Amino acid sequence: MSKAKSTRRVEANEALAICHSIRTSPRKLNLVAQSIRGLDAAKAVAELSFSKKRIAKTALAVLQSAIANAENNHQLNIDKLFVKAAFVGKGLVMKRMHARGRGRGARVLKPFSNLTVVVAERGE
Asked: What is the CATH number for 49?
């Protein structure tokens, strides 16, 4: 008696990759995600490879993982892939204290975020 198999979260011609707990704010990561939405997979890889943003390296790894999932797990043609969706979610927030004058303390928030990249095969 095993548990029933869960249904796929994406369609048959799509593949996704998720990265949790990326050490940057969702607002900064969303700027990088916006730059690749709707692009072909090869152009999106080039865009992230030459981006000056620090977090683009992590986003590139997630995109390459989604492309590899599409090729190996779902037998999709990587030449026809494009970034269907790239969205960012809020993760946990570490709260730290920073010593200020007169014995006070200021709160320092260190946010984390989650990145999901969905690649799909273009139809004819």
From this structure: 3.90.470.10
- Structural domain includes residue 7: no
**Sequential DSSP letters for 3-70:** PPPPPPSS-TTEEEEEEEEESS-HHHHHHHHHHHTT-BHHHHHHHHHT---TTHHHHHHHHHHHHHHH
What's the total number of domains in the chain? 1
Residue span of the structural domain in which 32 resides: 14-121
Task: Retrieve residue 113's tokens.
Answer: 């975020």
Residue entry with tokens 């890889």: 45
What pTM does this model have? Answer: 0.92
pLDDT in tens, the chain (124 residues): 788 888 888 899 999 999 999 999 999 999 999 999 999 999 999 999 999 999 999 999 999 999 999 999 999 999 999 999 999 999 999 999 999 999 999 999 999 999 999 999 998 6
Determine the Cα–Cα distance for residues 89 and 117; give it in Å rounded to an integer.
12
